[in-house]
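Chain X:
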Amino acid sequence: MSKVTCDVAVSLDGFMAGLNQTLDNPFGDGVGQRLTQWMLEEPEAHAEVIEGITAAGAFIMGRNMFGPGRDAWDMDWQGWWGEEPPYHAPVFVLTHHPREPLPMKGGTTFTFVIEGIEAALAQAREAAGGRDVSIAGGARTVNQYLAAGLIDELRVHVAPVILGRGERLFDGVGDTTLEPLGDVSGTALVTHLTYRVIHG
């Protein structure tokens, strides 16, 4: 049976992004590429992990991860990733503002969901065709799915960085039990941890 997975890059003190996300600062103040440096500088050392991140049959993300806007859509905005996003699969974006689906090169189509996290998950499961569904972020979206008991496997990629403030993983999630899976791996730039999320 397919799983709902989630890969998150976090600081050692648990932040997925800093404050004040903008067009010029997509990860917020003072973050830059510090949480994902391992993907950029050591892709071969983490090839299996990176492949796992992009292997899902469909993805779900929050509005903040898709772009810096919060109000009505700037219809020219097509995401941070250029003409060919890295997903190569359907992506469902949680939002309060309707927008027509946005097909991109390479097989990615962004579909905008205004009915909430469970509706987005139902659509993503159908689109994934039996493959896993990945909750791609950001922090608020991940925390909502964790709080609702809808994530089966959580993969945490911890960078040796302390941000001090920002958008924190596990905020508002409540009492949650995580069972470690597999071996801890990584390099000086990151530690990879995988957990099964135990529901109930």
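Chain Y:
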Amino acid sequence: MALAVTQSDFRNHIKHYLDLVNDDGENIYIARTKQRSAVIIDQNKFDWLERYVKTDQDSLEHAVAEDKLKEYGIIPDKDPVLDGQDYDNFWKQFEK
């Protein structure tokens, strides 16, 4: 989830907003003058975002970062949920 606040409101309640970022995983959008804005996100989210964009798409590190970002709800999880016969058929595609 995300919250949008004004610069003065953020300044006046900085501890509250930083606690929301760190404790609740909120993203805080801070509206500034001249249509500029800033975003405050949790350090862990930022680290995973950086890892995701800086790694080769075919690497294990990229796949792990992608899964983490899906857990955070930053990128959509489009992986199918498999059970029963679908589950067995999915794994059979990897057999030689």
